[in-house]
Amino acid sequence: MPELPMTVPAAGLPAHVTIYEVGPRDGLQNEKAVVPVEVKAEFLSRLADAGLTTLEATSFVHPKWVPQLADAAELLAALDRRPGVDYPVLVPNDRGLDRAIEAGVDHVAVFASATETFAAKNLNRTLDSQFDMFEPTVKRALDHGMRVRAYVSMAFGDPWEGAVEPAQVAAVGRRLMEMGCWQLSLGDTIGTGTPGHAEAVIDACVAASVPVDGIAVHFHDTYGQALANTLAALRRGVTTVDASTGGLGGCPYAKSATGNLATEDLVWMLDGLGITHGANLGALVETSVWMAGKLGRPSPSRVVKALAGDNSD
């Protein structure tokens, strides 16, 4: 079996894609056993060695809600931050921003909802009033010279409400961009999106004056659609894709969820299409095998399984 795919470019695709690696934060946050801070720091170091230049390191959420990330400040203090590598963190509110400022972070992300029910359950807000919570945090972050990314969760489907209208997602996205967020990550949180749906959501955002170069996509592979949806997004001009090395991460709202799009699976596709991205596939596979050993289970990534063979088990 070849170790790299044959390169056959396709028309209508970008020349370069930025991989926004979310494994250290979104990938690990649902792990029940706490991963030691030194393992997290080495994970980030290995990812940087593999050529990834955007590594979402952690989240300054209250430890009560996400115990796995209670060591955020300790991790950032221990981290060897590489020149040219961006280490964004998630901040849920003003207190989280305070902690990010103390840690010397210059890139943060806020987490919004595209649906009424998820806003109520996850943010204790209505769909409309969630913006009152984000606005002061975003403004203060901008005043500190930070870049602010905005996640929009449940942008394709909601476990309580079902399918989500693209226009509703676009309305949420537009308000976040108007606050000053530089990038909007559209999250298929429960993995129900399909390629046509992905195109419709992106088109609705662009029609609502969200620039396509400000859109990122974040697909979960619950129903095996993540790569197909990513390709559809690339055809629409999106050039930033969220992915998690080894396919780490799951979704608490869908029992069959297999986690985030695996970075290795994404890289295999991009290499086959001749799209540059800067990551070394072999180093990523080695990192995933190493992390799988730390977590005590094999990586769900198809590419890791294919290239690492028995070593991934």
Write a brief structural summary.
The chain contains twelve helices and ten strands.
Number of helices: 12
Query: Structural class, judged by helices and strands?
Result: alpha/beta
Strand content: 5-15%
Order of helices and strands: EHHEHEHEHHEEEHEHEHEHHH
Major sheet details = 8 strands, parallel
> Radius of gyration in whole Å, from Cα?
18 Å
Number of distinct beta strands = 10
In spatial order, strands of the major sheet run 1-10-9-8-5-4-3-2
- How much is the average pLDDT? 94
| Poorly predicted segments | none
Distance between the termini: 19 Å
| Helix content, binned percent | 40-55%
| Spatial shape | globular
Question: Descriptors for this entry?
Answer:
313 residues; single chain; two-stranded antiparallel sheet; eight-stranded parallel sheet; alpha/beta; globular; 13% strand
Explained architecture:
The chain has 313 residues and is α/β, with parallel strands linked by helices. The protein contains 12 helices and 10 strands. It has helices spanning 23-27, 37-49, 72-78, 94-102, 116-123, 130-143, 166-179, 195-207, 226-235, 263-273, 281-295, 302-308; strands spanning 18-21, 58-59, 89-90, 107-113, 147-153, 157-158, 162-163, 183-188, 215-219, 240-243. The strands form 2 sheets. Strands 1-10-9-8-5-4-3-2 form an 8-stranded parallel β-sheet. Helix 3 links the parallel strand 2 and strand 3. Helix 2 packs across helix 3, helix 2 packs antiparallel against helix 11 (281-295) and helix 11 packs across helix 12.
